[in-house]
Amino acid sequence: MAYDPNNIFAKILRGDAPCFKVYEDDMTLSFMDVMPQAEGHTLVIPKFPAENLFDLDPEYAGAMAKTVQRIAPAVKKAFNVPGILVAQLNGAEAGQTVFHIHTHIIPRRNGIDLKLHARGMADFKELESQAEKIRALIE
Ligand code: 5GP
User: Fold this and answer.
1) What tens digit of pLDDT does each residue of 26-47 get?
2) Could you say which of 105, 115, 123, 129 is the most buried, measured as most Cβ atoms within 10 Å of its Cβ?
3) Is residue 93 part of a domain?
4) How many domains does the chain have?
5) Which residues touch 18 (CB under 8 Å, ≥6 apart)?
C-alpha cells in the first residue's frame, strides 16, 4: 500500500490538524494520543513519510528511538508509574490504525488494565494539562 499523505499524522505534521504537543525537533514530533489506553499515553512520530518500520529511513528510525528514550522517562515521572510500555504496530493485522509510523509510550502499573486500543476520546483540557506536565519534565 502506498503512503497516504492525508493520514491524520501527516496532517498533524503539516499543521493541518491540531495536536497536544509534548516535544519537537528536526526529525521527530511527540504528542498526546487522543484515545489513550492509559492516562499519559503519548506518541512519537518521525517527520518522514513512511507507513511502517520497514519503509522508514534508518536515520529517522534512530531519531524516533532517541526521542522515545528522552520522552518516556518524562512520562514515567509525570504519571508516577513503575512501568512504561513502548509499542509500535506494523500493519492492520498487527492492530495498526494510523498509517504513518509511530511509537506508543504507555504508562503501566499493577492492577490497571489497558483501555481498548483507539476507542474512547479523552477530555481535551486534560490532554493539554498532561502534555504540559510531561514537557516540564523532559531532560
Ligand atoms: P496504531 O493503532 O496505528 O498503532 O495507533 C494509532 C493511535 O493514534 C491510536 O492509539 C489512536 O488512539 C491514535 N489516534 C487516532 N487518531 C488520532 C488523532 O487524530 N490525534 C491523535 N493525537 N491521536 C490519534
Assistant:
1) 999 999 999 999 999 999 999 9
2) 105
3) yes
4) 1
5) 12
Q: Is 8 in the pocket of ligand 1 (CB under 6 A)?
A: yes
- Structural domain contains residue 1: no
The pTM score is 0.98
For residue 130, the CA-to-ligand 1 centroid distance in Å is 16
Confidence of residue 61 (pLDDT cuts 50, 70, 90): very high
Nearest ligand 1 atom to the CA of 20 is 22
* Residue range of the domain that includes 55: 8-137
**Would you say residue 3 lies in a domain?**
no
Q: In ligand 1, which atom is closest to the CA atom of 41?
A: 10
Within-domain flag for 38: yes
Cβ(99) – ligand 1 distance below 6 Å: no
**What is the whole-number distance in angstroms between the Cα of residue 40 and the centre of ligand 1?**
13
Contacts of residue 133, defined as CB under 8 A and 6 or more positions apart, other chains included, come to 78
- Is the Cβ atom of 97 under 6 angstroms away from ligand 1? yes
| Active site (catalytic) residues | 102
pLDDT digits 0-9 by tens, 76-114: 999 999 999 999 999 999 999 999 999 999 999 998 899
Å from CA of 20 to ligand 1 middle: 12
Looking at the chain, which runs of residues are DSSP E strands?
A: 21-24, 28-32, 42-46, 83-87, 103-108
pLDDT (0 to 100) of residue 1: 67
Q: For position 40, which CATH number holds?
A: 3.30.428.10
